[in-house]
From TrEMBL:
The keyword Transferase applies. It comes from Hymenoscyphus fraxineus. Residues 24-35 have a biased composition (Basic and acidic residues). It comes from the Eukaryota. This is Uncharacterized protein.
Length: 632
């Protein structure tokens, strides 16, 4: 007889230890079903607390009735803390089986799951540790079930000790206890992720043959998680009291948790996240539950009315994820195989991807819970701005004004999450006509392009380089105006003669979004005389329009990075607004005669002065771009 019998609404194979002889053949890794087992299919029934506890008790009875496969000497269940700790600290322990116990008499190893000699190959799973992937093996499906029981039971015991009492007595104000619980989850959750049954898609992707346990997870597996006092309840508490900001800033802690939830949802175990059950919470611990007799179980009142499911508690986080979708697409844009250069943003980006993956999977169960995606504006330029406010580039470091500072100090990877949050704020909060280019390798180095607002600088394109110093965000960023060369006048008292923005207006209390909006406001040039306005209009055309209409500005190999990195934005801007900008300049020329006769230095030749018609030059440059214009 097989270890597993169909027995639940989940249509999974039930672990059935009753009256099993100890020489039952070992379960083999196979995708084939035994036709004789169809006769054992029971009618679907709704899981109840008592059913879960009975399944748990049957499982525990099986685990505690182990005898040596050779001499038949009873092998007692070891102390879980000692047993797991020994496994964790054994050299190459990931090649050993946690379900293997040694006979105290003949010293032979016996698998507690199949009662036989541990398999030489076993079932394969994966776990991420640092930068390497380790393969962890289990002798058989039942051995895997024991490993899950051992980890969950141990976590319940350690959680109770960490709290100094029952699990429902914890107060959110007790920071030390909360940290102890988080450390406990951090320690064991990667192993639980490994022990989740492998889905068909994962098996195909990683070329792993699915075991019977993977294809038909037993109802006892569900009972283990539902009756456990700690894991799912703790995850529910964490996800209901967090925000996307907390998740990203603590990505190292939350990433394994989200990976674990994805593993559950990817399989038939999604019910543990999506469904509610009336006996959630206030468990005395898995091991204590396991040791109770059936008569005791019937009178136990540990369970309470169900609260929200984990899927429901995640909804607030999912609602905050929409702005990340476009940002993630930009992060991978134009990169080989969709992979970006290694960056301190990677861990935060990966967490966002996993959250979106979890959101989309849960949407298959509750599609109404997903936030509505806001449609793009009808105006082509507004739509372009919405999807291109923030972009990533491997070449944005080229000729960066703060290159020397970047070489002197590496950017702290700990700030990667903070930068990502700032970028999300930029992607949703920037005004139309403001664009940010971020370096993949050094996200503390950025470039900004601003379309001049209404006023004498209207229509011009102004570029800035940004550098986030080592003490950012407590220290404001350094921002340098780069597109105007030394010829451009000081058009604001907050921009120094060497064209660096004064830190006085870049309060560290402001977000990066607020600081960039401050830069935009400097271009308004309000309260100036008519003479100053006319001068700014002329210099706007000469230094903020004409350079962006040259052939070099649209050539990828152009050396002036402040222009070439903006090829896509530059091209779209002039195609959509070139004619309007020219009409605006014509309006200026009615009052500003300097536009038709501007005395200036041209082509970096400081020895000669030229008298040029800026309006005609602009019209000619636009015509060369294929934009119709009537010269005047």
């Amino acid at each position: 007889m097989s270890f597993f019998l169909k027995n639940s609404t989940y249509k999974n194979r039930s672990f059935h230890p009753d009256n099993q002889p100890f020489d039952i053949p070992k379960e083999k890794s196979s995708t084939k079903k035994d036709p004789e087992e169809d006769a054992n299919i029971s009618k679907p029934e709704t899981p109840t607390a008592l059913t879960d506890l009975q399944n748990l008790r049957h499982l525990y009875t099986y685990f505690t009735s182990l005898k040596c496969r050779e001499c038949r000497t009873p092998i007692p269940l070891p102390n879980l803390e000692t047993h797991v700790d020994k496994w964790l600290h054994t050299p190459n322990h990931r090649l050993q089986y946690l379900s293997t116990l040694q006979c105290p008499k003949c010293k032979r190893d016996t698998c507690i799951g199949c009662r036989q000699k541990p398999a030489s190959i076993g079932l394969v799973g994966k776990i991420q540790e640092g930068a390497k992937k380790y393969r962890i093996r289990n002798c058989c499906g039942n051995g895997k079930l024991f490993s899950i029981w051992a980890f969950l039971s141990l976590m319940d015991e350690e959680a109770e000790r960490a709290l100094g009492g029952k699990l429902d007595t914890v107060s959110e104000s007790e920071r030390t206890k909360e940290e102890n619980l988080d450390n406990l989850l951090r320690k064991y959750i990667p192993y639980l992720s490994h022990l989740v049954p492998i889905s068909a898609s994962e098996g195909k992707r990683n070329k792993i043959t699915l075991s019977f346990f993977d294809e038909h997870p037993p109802v006892e597996l569900f009972a283990l998680y539902r009756c456990s006092a700690f894991v799912l309840n703790r995850i529910e508490v964490l996800m209901s009291h967090t925000s996307i900001k907390d998740l990203i800033e603590k990505s190292e802690f939350y990433a394994p948790i989200v990976e674990f939830l994805n593993s559950l949802v990817d399989h038939k175990m999604s019910s543990l996240i999506v469904d509610k059950w009336d006996w959630k919470g206030q468990s005395p611990g898995l091991k204590e539950f396991s040791e109770k007799e059936d008569s005791e179980m019937k009178s136990m009142q540990y369970w309470k009315q169900a609260g929200d499911s984990i899927a429901t508690t995640c909804k607030d986080v999912f609602d905050q994820m929409s702005p990340f979708v476009n940002l993630l697409e930009k992060y991978d844009h134009n990169h080989p195989n969709g992979k970006a250069t290694s960056s301190c943003l990677d861990s935060s980006i990966d967490l966002c991807r996993d959250l979106l993956k979890l959101r989309d999977k849960l949407a298959e169960h509750s599609p109404g819970d997903l936030p509505t995606i806001k449609p793009l504006p009808d105006d082509p330029w507004e739509a372009f701005c919405t999807t291109n406010h923030v972009a990533f580039s491997s070449s944005s470091l080229k000729e960066h004004y703060f290159a020397e500072q970047l070489d002197e100090k590496e950017f702290s990877a700990d700030l990667g999450g903070k930068v990502l949050l700032e970028l999300v704020g930029l992607s949703t909060g920037l005004e139309g006509g403001v664009f940010v280019m971020v370096s993949r390798k050094r996200p503390d180095a950025m470039k900004i392009l601003v379309v001049g607002p209404e006023g004498p600088l209207e229509g011009g394109l102004f570029t800035f380089d940004i550098y986030l110093p080592p003490k950012w965000p407590t220290e404001p960023p350094r921002i340098q105006c780069t597109s105007t060369e030394d010829l451009f006048p000081k058009f604001s008292k907050f921009i120094s003669l060497d064209r660096e923005v004064s830190p006085l207006i870049l309060s560290p209390e402001k977000t990066l979004l607020g600081q960039i909006n401050t830069i935009v406001s400097l271009l308004s040039s309000e309260s100036i005389s008519a003479s100053e306005k006319h001068t700014l209009q002329c210099q706007n055309i000469q230094y903020a329009m004409l350079p962006f209409l040259t052939k070099e500005a649209f050539t990828p190999t152009h050396k002036i990075n402040s222009l070439s990195v903006w090829r896509e934005v530059n091209s779209k801007y002039w195609d959509l607004h070139g004619k309007r900008v020219l009409e605006r300049v014509k309006e200026w020329s009615i009052e500003n005669r300097d536009l038709r006769s501007w005395i200036t230095i041209m082509d970096d030749d400081e020895s000669d002065l030229y008298n040029v018609d800026l309006l005609n030059m602009l019209a000619h440059a636009l015509t060369s771009r294929g934009i119709p214009s009537s010269r005047t």
